[in-house]
Amino acid sequence: MRRARPSTRSPGRPTRRINTGPRSRTSSTRRSTAEPQTGLREIVRLMGTSVSLHLADDFDHESLIQLADEAFSWLRLVEQRFSPYQPGSEVSRLRRDEMCLAECSSEVRAVIDRCAQLWAMTDGYFDAYATGALDPSGFVKGWAVQVASDRLLAAGCANHCINAGSDVRMRGRPVPGQPWRVGIRHPQQGVGPSWIVSGTDIAVATSGIYERGCRVVNPHEGRPSMELQSVTVVGADLGLADAYATAGAAMGMPALTWLAGLPDHEAAVITEDARCFRSDGLPTID
Asked: 8-20: per-residue pLDDT in tens?
């Protein structure tokens, strides 16, 4: 990875409706008409962040509403089953030994199996038990958004973007001839993006220190990892990119070499002393 100068350009702020409560079909909680341009945009508070969905295909409004409902319903189900902050979630009940893995849903069992694989793939730096209790959050959000995107694609919606805070899946184009783009915010500056990543079929995951402070633990040392304040990984699968970003943030400075060696992935890193590094293939807008 090479040293880079952060971009000062802004990706812009499109107008959108924000839904902070339960979704319904009433006009008070969602758009009553489609966007003036093709598609639909919505924002819902889920999984501890604002999840935005932009459907850019030229479908009728009711079809777009149904696709959005299905995507958000899936993400809400994931939150209900996996959140360590909800006492009734399957993850919380597993942590309290109130249920065994065999009693869990197929999704929870599959995610825990995948976390074990990722632990081996990252030399233990991705660890769902890094804090001592089960917490697969470093994989679940990216995985859930990837599944939502896959389902949209299977339903014929080939042009869409789902942005769940630090995890973004972009497919197709927002308008003909223009790729999607997303800004990677600098954790220290707090204003403007460090880079603007652009593409027509990419997953972008970022892990590090933002509003909530350091949440990534180095599982080999049992303490918060502070050397890298932001790690962004770009690839084809958002769940994998999310886990790689989490592992890189936990790893610290050795991650610069490790990330550079990941096949079919690009990366960008901001260190504790504000140095910026990026791989040569990172799809950025200069």
From this structure: 333 333 334 333 3
- Tell me phi and psi for residue 126, to 5 degrees: -95, 115
- Residue 81 tokens read as 């089953």
pTM: 0.87
Cα-Cα-Cα-Cα dihedral sign, residues 281, 284, 285, 286? negative
CATH of domain 2-278: 3.10.520.10
Domain boundaries in the chain? 2-278
Residue 191 pLDDT > 80: no
Residue 22 has pLDDT above 90, yes or no: no
| Residue listed under structure tokens 């509003």 | 211
Return the HEC string of the chain: CEECCCCCCCCCCCCCCEECCCCCCCCCCCCCCCCCCCCEEEEEEECCEEEEEEECCCCCHHHHHHHHHHHHHHHHHHHHHHCCCCCCCHHHHHHCCCCCHHHCCHHHHHHHHHHHHHHHHCCCCCCCCCCCCCCCHHHHHHHHHHHHHHHHHHCCCCCEEEEECCEEEEECCCECCECEEEEEECCCCCCCEEEEEEECEEEEEEEECECCECCCEECCCCEECCCEEEEEEEECCHHHHHHHHHHHHHHCCCHHHHHHCCCCCEEEEEECCCCEEECCCCCECC
Q: Give the tens place of pLDDT for each residue, 246-279.
A: 999 999 999 999 999 999 999 999 999 989 999 9
